[in-house]
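Hi C.,

You asked whether I'd gotten around to modeling the 103-residue construct. I have! Everything is below, sequence then structure, no commentary in between.
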Amino acid sequence: MSRIAASGVLLDIEGTTSSVRFVYDEMFPFARRELDAYLQSHWRDADCQAACAQIAADAGYASLDDWAGAGVNDEGRRTLVAGEVRRLMDGDVKATGLKELQG
């Protein structure tokens, strides 16, 4: 038997403490509704930028700059990221960048 030294355990609780329907009926619509405002207010945060860079990598690009292309301003980049986030959510994709953005 293996022993593990840990001070906590992280569990995926979706569907265990509340109905999985709650996630789809309440949490996902809330996230979609608040996504643009969240990106607007947190765009310059290091964690948000790291998540957006990972979303670009998950989409097959070397960086957010590579994905967005030259001359695209922050608003255009946020629109690009938001569109990809919604596409991933619609497909129930478990992508690293999306999970980072979700926290």
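If it helps when you're writing up: The chain is about 65% helix and 0% strand.

Thanks,
B.
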